[in-house]
Amino acid sequence: DSLQLTTPTSSNPTSPLSVHIYDDVLNPNNARMIYKVTASNRHVQQTMDESVDVGQTDTSMKLEGESPWGTYVTIEEALEWIEWKKREGQPERNDNDNFEEYLVAWRHEMIRYYKWQKHERQSSDEKKKKEERIEPDDANDSYFHNQLDDMDNVRHALAVEAVANVFIETVPFQPGTTAVAKAQSGQSSNETLFHPAQILKQAHGVAVWALSSSPGHSVSYHMDYAELLRYEYNVTVPPLWAGTVQCSALWNNQKTAADNRHDEQLSQCVSPKQCMKGGEFCVNLRGLDHYGEHGYKGNLSGDSAGGWKRPDDATAGQCLKGGVYINDNDQWVTIPYSFNRGIVHRGDLPHLSAPIECIGTHEKSTVDEEGDYASRVIVGFNVFGHDVGARIAKAPEHSKPFRRKVRLYRSTINASTIVKKSVGGKSCQSGMDFSQLRKNKGLTKLLVLAKREKVKEELRRDQEQLTGRIWRRILSHHGQDMPLLRAAEFIEEFGRPNDSLDRAWPKSIDVHVHLHHMLLSKNSAQDMAQQQRGRIHNLFQDNDGLAGPPGTWYRIKVVENGDESLSGGLIPISTSL
Fold it and tell me: d(Cα 451, Cα 519) in Å, to the nearest integer?
């Protein structure tokens, strides 16, 4: 209910307490595609016009909505996309294409990109290049056509392009169409939110998610964080930076639409069906201080809006370009919804989405120009650092793996029994009943997996410690005028008796096996430099200078009988090393 521990390496105190608005941030057809693969009032299907000449026998592409959805884009993926665009030159698709033609061009472009990406990754690894057969172009085309029939792959491809466009090519170089900095912070609204070097060095990747909302829906006051880590470790890790792009062809009012599209006649062209009341994005520039007063969803203050009120004529503040309003008293920034508008800010700023009162002329729903039920769609971005990014990538928020994990974790909560108090007849939570635990398949599976992972993690830790102890022992002995160490000395010094009844690791046989596998290891210095050494390795860099000049690499060598000692079973304990 209150502010939890924040991982220091994910905080970003150098970024300004500001919010930056970018109008027309994406290719408008890309924004429309994101809408199509997210809007879920019903399955939205788009089939390409077969009369369009695309040079392929299969020209159809069906876009189906799902909300919510999530994926994870690494910075490396986004940079690959940018590199390919530079090599590709003039794109096949055009902003002015009609939507059907654009879909055809987008699909062809993505197939060429995937083929280039596959070739680049194979070429960068000589071992893979030898072992993996590069398929003919026709086979690749067929394979990637099938890949793009999967909506999860289409969503990920759109996410990669959006991350590259917004967070690498736009935000580091432009302050935005409108930018608002915290009052009295000494920060200029003309500064960019971050510099190119910052995101390339600090960021591991971006968790991307999308959400479709209809009238009556809202998102309460909150701060973004790595939700899976909160479930697993009960810590709150906010992103470095966060943002959204508004993907529905909707505006909060016609005047805002005209301002954003730089078209004085647009106020006469925007249909009433494209106007939405409510659904604004609101962010507070006081950051963690404000969140500490209100808490998640206002649990500390009792106000689920965190003190936000929709601006009116009596509100003290400024109305900026695009209808953006800053309240001078409480530092709330209210940003109207506008098609293809991007909003980016520091990751620890609390925010909310105002309730949607109506879309178009109806309080419940309206139908857009193509006959689909309109909804408010946003795609969100959370940029995470190297400390947590790889873990988040395994189950990014709103993805299918994430939803499976959350259901599993929640089953542990529901497994508690309810007992009646004898006084007052009130109920309370008690501990788990063992018979109920056995009936709960989800919880049983979770506990078995947790126990298995704990045992594996303990073994990994113990093996790493034993490897380190063996290396320190042999390096401290190296260069001294003493007989060579024998395998038996390591086994005796580090191993417990094999017949001991305790379960402590390692026993003598464990040390014997461990030493044998160390000698079999074929790690190279390059592998070690790339931190690929694993738990058992026969290559060590003596950074502390235990046996000679610091930084020297060492390998343990079998002296008696050479490598013959390593064949036909475990190394003899009499072997000198």
Answer: 31
Q: Where are the alpha helices (DSSP H) in 212-363?
A: 227-233, 254-261, 266-269, 288-294
Check whether 562 has a pLDDT greater than 70: no
Residues contacting 383, CB < 8 A, separation 6+: 167, 199, 203, 205, 206, 239, 240, 241, 242, 347
> Which among 148, 166, 156, 161 is positioned nearest to 103, based on CA atoms?
148
- Residue 121 in this model has a pLDDT that exceeds 90: no
Q: How far apart are CA 157 and CA 82, in angstroms?
A: 13
In eight-state DSSP terms, residue 562 is: G
Per the model's pLDDT, the better-predicted residue between 43 and 84 turns out to be 84
DSSP designation for 461: H
Instruction: Tell me the C-alpha distance between 127 and 145, whole Å.
Output: 28
pLDDT at 392 over 70: yes
Question: Which of 342, 344, 317 is CA-nearest to residue 330?
Answer: 317
SS3 of residue 251 by DSSP: strand
Mind listing the pLDDT tens digit for each residue in 252-291?
875 555 455 444 434 444 677 789 999 999 999 999 999 9
Site of tokens 């003190």: 307
Angle between the 508-520 and 441-477 helix axes, to the nearest 10 degrees?
A: 70
Strand pairing partners for 356? 278
Contact between 340 and 27 under an 8 Å Cβ cutoff? The reply is no
Residue 348 predicted with pLDDT over 70: yes
Query: 3-state DSSP call for residue 451?
Result: helix
3-state secondary structure of 245: strand
Percent of the chain residues topping a pLDDT of 70: 74
CA distance 518 to 150: 45
Q: Decide: 157 and 30 in contact? Cβ < 8 Å.
A: no
- How far is Cα 95 from Cα 349, in angstroms, rounded to an integer? 33
Per-residue DSSP letter, 323: G
Q: Are 514 and 506 in contact (CB under 8 A)?
A: yes
Bridge partners of residue 20, in order along the sequence:
179, 344
Residue 344 corresponds to which tokens in the numbers above? 């980016």
139 backbone φψ class: left, alpha, beta (φ>0; ψ -120 to 50) = alpha
Query: Mind listing the pLDDT tens digit for each residue in 453-504?
Result: 888 888 888 998 999 899 989 888 887 778 889 999 999 999 988 877 777 8
Q: In what order do the strands lie in the sheet with 219-222?
A: 219-222, 351-353, 281-284, 332-335, 325-327, 317-319
For strand 203-213 and strand 332-335, is the pairing parallel, antiparallel, or unpaired? unpaired
Integer Cα distance of 116 and 140 in angstroms: 11
Q: Say whether 486 sits in a helix, a strand or coil.
A: strand
Count of other CB atoms within 10 angstroms of residue 526: 8
The residue type found at 455 is: V
Question: Can you tell me the distance from the alpha carbon of 43 to that of 39, in angstroms, rounded to the nearest whole number?
Answer: 8
Question: Measuring CA to CA, how many Å separate 549 from each of 310, 457, 543?
Answer: 68, 34, 8
